Structures
1.
Amino acid sequence: MSEQEHTAYTYLRPTKKFPNVWCAGCGIGVVMGALIRAIDKIGLAKDDVALVSGIGCTGRMPVYMDFNTMHTTHGRALAFATGLKFARPSLKVIAIMGDGDAVAIGGNHFIHAARRNIGICSIVVNNAIYGMTGGQYSPTTPINGRATTAPYGNIEPGMPICELAIAAGASYAARTTVYHAVELERYLEQAIRKDGFSLVEAVSYCHTTYGRLNKLGTPVDMMRQLKENSVSLNMIDKLTPEERGSKIVRGVLHNVDKPEYTALYDQLVARVQGR
Amino acid sequence: MTVKLMQGNEAVGWGALAAGCRFYAGYPITPSTEVAEMLSRELPKVGGKFIQMEDEIASLAACIGASVGGLKSMTATSGPGFSLMMEHVGYAAMTEVPVVVVDVQRLGPSTGQPTSASQGDVMQARWGTHGDHPIIALSPTSVTQSFDLTVKAFNYSEKYRTPVILLLDEVVGHMREKIDVPDFDTVERVERIAASVPPEWYKPYGDSFSDVPPMANFGDGYRYHITGLFHDPMGYPTQRLDEIDDWIERVHRKIDRNLSDIILHEEDDLDGARTVVVAYGASARSARHAVKMARQRRAKVGLLTLITIWPFAEDLIARIAHTAKRIVVPEMNLGQLALEVERVAGRNKVVRVNRANGEMVSPQMILEAIEGR
């Protein structure tokens, strides 16, 4: 058993019945592994971490991990997380969402949590589809991509998740893919360490629904596509516009320091109480 | 004790503070906004948290999150916002997280008439969210009672680990009355049963003597799982029929076993009354006046004021139905709680007095019903 497997096992719930709900070959497990390693590296106590998720394949992630875990309603993870963080600022609150969860049904909560710059680390696993309900198009389904509710191809432009968070006021936003697991772990570590609202978008895939409907092959093939269709932010200037195309840009897109919401509120209380 | 003149909505805010509420999340909506305004001013003074969320869905979600974090939490809204909150009323019931939801009823459906009174959310409070679940709903008739019942709402929610709905109507919410605000130290407060076993033994939804499992707050060293899915005693999702049955039976039992503690009411000369008026909220004020007028005309009429709306006071109504020939139910809707009275007493005995245009049911309307005109 390698050292890294050991790390994961100490954070998994011994009482929780495995196997997990995800299809064999799913990218969500990569995100879970990276998250555990990032938390371990920072050295957070399990009691001081709370994972709050919404609904969908990604929403099932927290139940397997030995922290304070809360599986909430579709789209509302950040609203619950806001209450929890505000009530208990000492907790490291991590919100775990899928793409439909975070920016379709939860879009309003997403922009306002970012706007408040409340100290929540949010993770969006973006697989470009509603996987759990069987493959309906999501706000990040590519143009012309097939889905069970887009049988003739999707005509809606995609939602830029990181850019949305940055525009709304987030302190930190980074994007990578589940192929780049080491990079993902590094970004998660930075995001968790951040005081304000931070976001890591982990671009994943759903071979079971989107992959099958669009003839994209096996999970291995889809992993390879993530590798080939993505480019690091550092490299992007070296590409021609044609080469750049619709590649996924990986990197830390935004990283600033500004006052965090619960800290500002504490200052307000001190002012009101004349301290 | 301090004598003050204030609105029902403000009394709700003071009641919340007296009960130990330290978290409020809400979204502005008429006619409930005074609750938020009052608490945005007062909560920081006591180190409490106030936040204005992006909508009512988020408001109740934040309250539930804060309650899991250990703070007594409340939100206040009105019809359209109450509709949005239904998702999380169900989540709080399923996860057994204490939280208080204030609904200052206005005329609906939809945007309706924001500044007009209504009692149109009675059935929504009971059945608005999907699935079978118990609920507690209280309805004050006065400013003083708005204070008292807010305290009660918190106490019930903590004691029974359940969402509690405080159903005001626009009349009670906006009406100003004299109130003796008690010293908060003298107010009875109930705290949730804390987990006391070692963390490795803790079962967040396990069996317990009272059917209310002890509740650990996140961050207190008990790491466990909360989900809106049906869950086993450990809080983990389950599809096992026996575990689903156990949950459904237990959460209903924890309320059903304690009806005598939960069902609050006021009786006025019920024994032997041929006619009884059953009323709640602002309509109970009109009813009181009508009963007084009827008695002046020597009618033998009793008045039952229901303070707890849900669970419904079945036994009380059955007792009245035993002797009364006529049960008059005035409501600012087209007959919602009357359906429950009819279910217990039979349709023949029940006379509905309804008004659903934003005006109160008048004493005259009730008097006519009492006298069978």
Note: Chain B has two domains: 2-186, 266-370.
2.
Amino acid sequence: MWRIRWVLKPLVFLACLLPALRLGVGALNAVEAWNIGGISLGADPVKMLLHTCGRWTLNFLMITLCMTPLRDLTRSVFWLKFRRMFGLFSLFYAVLHFSIYLLLDQNGRLSDLWQDIVKRPYITLGMLALLSLIPLGVTSTAKAQRRLGRDWTRLHRLVYVIAILGVWHFWWQVKKDIREPLLYACGLTLLLGYRLWKERRSLSRLSAARFARTDAA
Amino acid sequence: MPRRLPDSSKVLPSEITPEREYLSRRALLAGALSTAAVQSIGGFSRAAYGQSPGALTYVHNADLSVTAAPNSYRDITTYNNYYEFGTDKSDPSENAQKFRTQPWNVTIGGEAEVTGTFALEDILKPHPLEERVYRLRCVEAWSMVVPWIGFPLGDLLKRFKPTSKAKFVEFKTLYDPKQMPGQRVGVLEWPYVEGLRIDEAMHPLTLMAVGLYGKVLPNQNGAPLRLIIPWKYGFKGIKAIVSIKFTERAPRTTWAGAASNEYGFFANVNPSVDHPRWSQASERRIGANAFGPRQPTLPFNGYAAQVAGLYSGMDLRKYF
């Protein structure tokens, strides 16, 4: 148990930070014309920062959604110990993504931001996803979980909607080559489809059990 | 066997001389004539002038060049939209290195008196090269400044004596999925097709480019022959051209065909007509100041004084 808490979790935590670290070094290299670690953000560093953070937001959403199927598959609750961390990293990269968009891409002009949110459907979707992700982050503590009880589970089902919004946001943003958003959409379909399938199966089992009971009576 | 233009010699240079050497040999000849002009260039490195493979001889055209500092050779040659070699900006520089640009033929067809298939050397031969530093504005709202080497497209087109029926010019890129891995994927309809109205094609700013930064065009930038129309979005600048056809009707261009609500036939840079999914009011200049502010996009990419007259009376919101 202590090994998970004091060794494995910190290691996974650091691994989750690596993409951000890489981007940080890349940004420094871009500004100072250095070449630390040979990391380059290419000719358009702002776009690279923006898109990489967006991708990692989606990656961590997908990873978070993998934990329950993995638990079912391996019959081990081991996976669930990492779920909150992955979920929070998704929020972390979403906030970075948004900050880069606002501060570097839009030069911090809030009036432009509002225009963009209203006028551009893909930005509307992205904003909705981010705003929905925040309450999940805020209520991610054990204390909040206890206090909210069954409502906590209900609230955190929002993550399914957020994931759909996130992938949709990506899809509407690409110019023509939809292969990458399509890949995310397929992954998400699997992950959400699994949950639907599980739900239906347990429902039919429940009714079957009920049927059996009435039959016996 | 490609046909020859009336003024070409009997033996095709492509049969005996590699294009690069051919071009630099031309360069020496032309150099004698334009030494004075060349000396006045300054700014770029001229150390390898006339010697290194791929170096071209040209005259700097200051009148048609912007004074802004050009982007680095590295930026211009590693950040490319060239879907034939992949959809990532870095794909073309990685996937186009083995692309064969010789021998290269260009087919001229349609409403013109002189038509047929010609070797690239014959296409290029009569045209003195000039350097023009142009702004390049991508439809994705980023921009660069590029020192192209080329010659006016109009000078080339006139040699084929277009008839009065020639209202448009259609260009096609090579279709060769073996060499162009992007063409194995149906992201766009292949081959890539672009087009111009004949007056746009004849406009002195419209450039047939064969080089940049004083050297032969790198493959990822559209070698051996590409179009540059500086007042239009970058996707109009078709690369690796193998076909030029004079037509009576507007050709169906690739991007307009793929999403006609997002990309028009004209595709003139216009800050007041947004792309349906993003704003065209401003752009991010690639280069030196990586995290600098966006800059406002200019009507016709800053070339309004020269080209706005082509579109007088046209509703540019409708014909975007």
Note: Chain B is about 20% helix and 20% strand.
